[in-house]
Task: structure prediction
Amino acid sequence: MKNINDFEIWKSNTETINNCSYVLKSRNASTIGEIVYYKCNRSTSYILSDNSDRRHRLLKSQGSCKINSSCTSEIKVVEENNKILIEWQKVHYGHNLDIQYIRLPKTEKQNIATKITNGVAPQRILESTRDNIGEHLKRVDLLSTKDLRNIKISYGLELKDGKRDSNDAFSVALWVKECENLKEKPILLYKEQGKDHSILRKEDFCLIIMNKFQRQMMKQFPSTITIDSTHGLNDYDFEMTTIMVLDEYHHGFPVAEMFTNRKDTIVQSIFFSVIKDTIGVIHCKFFMSDMAEVFFNAWYGEMGPPYPQHLFCSWHVDRARQSNLNKISTKDKCSDIYKILKILILKNY
Result:
């Protein structure tokens, strides 16, 4: 190779084709020139003994990319006589070539940084990435909000609006502390991970938010309550559960939010109990949720009778219908039955 730029292009293409990633390990001066070593990013540069102090941090939902040993694959680069010589140990040891654990190629990072600089919304960047997924999955196809945040930091594009600190947990704690000084007190419950609670486990996280206007809306329009959870919002595998009411225009209006790592009746009961303690018992005529009984059982357990009519969200019903139709082996028959069911549903409305 003629120069370092040629090597960077070769390295990027090699990482993309082989679903691997290499990071700089060391630089050494020698009589023949500078020698640079790149190691597989799955390798651990050091191993802590059992008696050593370990850092405690939140792991990503897919776990750590490190394998607690040294992978055999590496690249040796020698700059000699204005030329770049490469020795590549291709064979990896101790792990599979899992695409979720490799790093984003530099060219992809630069493209994304350009979009961020031009004001493209993060959600739009993620959506455009999903739209371009081809037959062979690439690392950029798994782009996440964490990747965007890291790119902002590395390219100096990090915005401080709404973020008190680079550490997510500390940033949330600072925001909650600020809210405690507000007159309306929008934070109904804040349970940090690592803190004790009478019901929740020590490792659980729970944040419940309901401001003054949301309280007024829930008391004014209690007839129809809808609730749903959204997951995959970050790398910590937390869920956002939202309670909505129908306003005078029959539009959904969010009246309370809960962020938590738990997905069971216990945490939902805490959610509704805190709301009951704040604005009183809510008697609704209709309660709409997904097809699981977690939300409804928790609501009825806290709010009590009269028994509301339990409605299922049409999206969840349709998803369950399609899931069961997949049990039919004949594809054409499956499609025909689905169309007939849709027609029958429309006739009943």
Residues 4-46+55-101 form one domain.
